Every structure is written in C-alpha cells, then in structure tokens.
Amino acid sequence: MELNKAITLNNQGAKHFLEKEYEKAEQCYLEAFEINPKNVSVLNNLGLFYHQQKDYEKALSYFDLAISHEEKPNFRVNAGNSLVMLNKPDKAKEQYLKATKLDPRHIGAWVSLAKLCTHLGELEDAVLFWKKLMRYTAKEEYILELAKVYMLKKQFNVAVSLLYERIPNPNNPEIWFQIGRGEFLLKNHGMAEDALKKALAECPDQVEYRYYLAINYLSMGQIEGGLYHINMILKLQPDNYQILTEKGIILCGLHEYDNALKLFEKALSIQPEYDKAIHYKKLISNQTS
After folding, report:
1. Of 158, 153, 195, nearest to 178 (Cα)?
2. Cα(264)–Cα(266) distance, rounded to whole angstroms?
C-alpha cells in the first residue's frame, strides 16, 4: 500500500514539475523518497529536479543512487549531463559511453557524446560519434551537426557535399546558411549567394545569415550590395559595435574617413575595449594628422 502511495506521489511530482510548480514537485518527490528510497523513478526524478534547479551536486547524488539500484542508459546520460555542468567533462564522457554500452541505440547518449567532444575541440571523436549515431537514425538535424563539425575541421568541401547529398531538397534555412557559409569559404561566391539568399528568404532578421551575404558581396567586389546588407543589420541592431566597425572599414576603403571615424567612435562608446575599432581608429588618426 505504501509503495503505491510512493508511485502516486512520484506521478504527482512529475505533473507539478511539468507545470513549473517546483516547490510542490520537490515536496511530492521527497515524500515519495521517504516512503520508498529505492524507487529508481523517484531517484531519477529528484535528480532531474535538482539539475533543473542548478544544484548539480545534489542532482548527481540522486542519479548515482538510481544507478546503484538499476543500470539504465538514461540514468547514465542524466548523470553525465550534471557532470558537464560541474565542469567534469572526462567523467561525463565515461557516463555517456557506459550508456551506449547498455543500449547501443540510445540516441541521447550519442548526441551528448558528439556535442561534448565538439565543445572540447575533440573533433575527430565528434565526427565518429555523429557517424555512429547516424547508423541508427539519419535525422536532418544530426546531418547538419556533423556538417558543422566538418566546418570546424576546415573540411568545407566535405561539409557542403554532405548537406547536398544527404539532404537533397533542404527547406531548413539553417541548412542553406551552412551551405552558403561553406561555399563562401570555398570561394564559390555565386553558389554562396544563392544559398544565403534562400536562408534569408525564410529568416530575414537573422543577422548572421545577412552578415555572410554582405561579406560575400564584398568579396565579389560588389560594395553596394555589401553595404546594403550591413545597413540592414544596423537597422535591426543599431548598437552592434562589431557591425559598426565593419561598416567603418568598408568606408575606409571608399576613402570616406570622416564617416568611418564616427562609426569607430560609436563602436567604442558601446564597447571601449574592442581592439578592431581601436586599431582602425588609430590608422585613420595617423593618416589624417
């Protein structure tokens, strides 16, 4: 009878948690834990609760307790997530790998491994883990993430080919952006323009997409097109000190030094320690003095 009560309290806690009634959720979970301290669902839910509350040490203690009673891959993944937040990536990786041994098809474990290795700059391992994941499911989002890792490895041809081949009819603007970025870095400016325009057609306020289109035009010598998109970004983000500086650099190339200087000064009023603006402001000052 008492065990059934623990199950009921655990379910109530989960409901409160989903409804963001966190105090009530904690109360239900703890009551359930007192009744049945070996209930792994309660232990895991307590871990998830304290992880959400950013008490990662306490979260980990409950995940470890759950694992001590029953080996489940999601418990290992949850423990790994808390270890990542505690800045213990090697131990986190161990947990994720143990999860994959318990269930080689556990998507969350492979995704966590791949993302952690990407974050750590362990790009060969990241590629390996994304590829292992895609043996079981080749979702568009995973192909995109693998392409991003190839971009980080500066294997732009591989990244672009992967996106074209594995996603032949992309409708996700992020995919078109990554294709456009890759083509730009490969100096295929016409193809980059086409892809970036498709990305922007879906997300016209996406600053990064527009910035790459701007620098792609500038690389082709189309100053007017580049400036148009730089100005569009500044309409969206008038205090973007990096874009203000980029526009100033363009104006320097057009010998509009007074206007460029104003832009560098505005950028520095927003971010006084921005080295790029400081550098170009000094260049103009030296040239005009």
Report:
1. 195
2. 5
Nearest CA among 76, 79, 42 for reference residue 61: 79
With bands split at pLDDT 50, 70 and 90, how would you rate the model's confidence at 171?
confident
Nearest Cα residue to 256 out of 223, 218, 220, 216: 223
| H-helix or E-strand spanning residue 5 | helix 2-18
Place of tokens 């994720």: 96
Compute the distance between CA of residue 123 and CA of residue 242 in angstroms, rounded to an integer: 28
138's tokens: 């080749």
CB atoms within 10 A of CB 255: 7
Structural tokens at position 88: 């213990």
In the chain, % of residues over pLDDT 90: 92
Structure tokens at 14: 């989960």
Q: Provide the pLDDT confidence category of residue 285 given band limits of 50, 70 and 90.
A: confident
Residue 45, token pair as written in the block: 């839910």
Alpha-carbon Rg for the chain in angstroms: 26
Task: Quote the pTM value.
Answer: 0.87
SS3 133: helix
107 DSSP 8-state letter = H
pLDDT digits (tens, 9 = 90+) for 110-125: 999 999 999 999 999 9
| Helix pair angle (123-133, 107-120), 10° resolution | 160
CB 91 within 8 A of CB 71: no
Straight-line distance from the first to the last Cα atom of the chain, in angstroms, rounded to the nearest whole number: 88
Amino acid at 15: K
| Residue 4 to residue 85: CA distance in whole angstroms | 34
Q: What are phi and psi of 222, to 5 degrees?
A: -95, 80
DSSP string, 246-269: HHHHHHHHTT-HHHHHHHHHHHHH
Q: Residues 142, 144, 146, CA angle at the centre, nearest 5°?
A: 70
